[in-house]
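Example 3.2
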Amino acid sequence: MTKKLTLASVQLTAGPTFPKDGVVRHLDYIAQAKKLSVDILVFPELSLTGYVLNERVPDVALRYNDDIITQIAKASEGITVTFSFIEEGEGVRYFNSAITVRDGRVLNLHRKINLVTYGLLDEGKHFASGEEVNAFAPGSIESQWSASTLICADHWNPLLLSLSALRGSNLLLAPIASALEAVGDSFSNPEGWQQNLGNTALTFGSYIVMSNWIGAQDNITFWGGSCIVSPKGKVLSTATDNECLITAVAEYSEVKQARYLLPTLRDLNPHHFVREFARKT
């Protein structure tokens, strides 16, 4: 993996499905991305099933080593793919998870930490919360690129974003499921996400690949807006108002310059967090 990467985000049409059907759509987009010489491809939150928050959760949950997951992993020869599913974890607990695969191998598994329990959403009723934020090499371990995955509301937690950067990430993968009505009438999710992603990219000097759903499902409407953002907070590519695949080129030199000009990570001292958390008064 070179100092230049072709990043891609898939924006999917909203609607529930079963993993055995969702995998077909994933394989089609992976094939498309390969033809475009994409290096890293990101699908939306819960991309294998649609954004499911109901009694179907146990029926569509998969172990991370399920044959369906393996099928997508085998298709990832020469391309890094992040997709999302309902994971059946230890003790038959269910997680909202995103997995990253390449060349048939699992590179990373992230379990959503900030479960949404406000507005019209109640993820805490269905899912257990994840606990870890990791950074991983999205390709060759000799590469300067380091990626981290945070799912939807995780991106609204400043501590998780800081942990991602402190782990060494310079490429943030953002599968989300954001709907217009989710928070409330007085809050604009499209405007909020635009500001959030721009501020995060600028603050930490990282590229961000965001992938969302588009269209109506049940009583909510997913607004799309999938995009790729530069380390200076500039939107490099954004999706149309339909199902599509978008791409943009990421250059490592942009990360170097952004982090030199605004050295947030240099001054982000983890020992300060440890000391403050341990302080009694």
